[in-house]
C-alpha cells in the first residue's frame, strides 16, 4: 500500500537542521515581540485612556522596536530557507505589529514548516 508520505521526497538532513534552527529563532522572536506588543498596548491604554503615570514603562516601546527588528530578521532568515513567497513573508512580518497576531502566525508557520521539512 502506497501512502502520500512514501512518495514525498526526503529532505536532506543538513537542510532540515538549518531550517529547524531558523524556525526556533523565528519562534522565539515572535513570542518576545508578541509579548512586548501586548505590554505596549497595556501601557498605552493606561496612559491615554486611564490617565495613569506609566513612566516606569517608558522602556517598552524601545525594547519592542528592537525585538521587532530581530523578528523581521528572523522571519527573513526562515523565509529564505523555507522559500516563502513574498506574500507569506509580508503577512508574517506584519504580524509583529498587530496585537496577538504574532502568536497566531507563529503557530501556523511552525506547523507548515515542520510538515514541509519533515521536522520532529
UniProtKB/TrEMBL annotation:
Xref: Pfam families: DUF3817 (PF12823)
Record's keyword terms, sorted: Cell membrane, Membrane, Transmembrane, Transmembrane helix
Subcellular location: Cell membrane
Membrane topology, as annotated: Multi-pass membrane protein
Repressor is among the record's keywords: no
Alphabetical list of NCBIfam families matching this protein: integ_memb_HG (TIGR03954)
Protein name per Swiss-Prot or TrEMBL: DUF3817 domain-containing protein
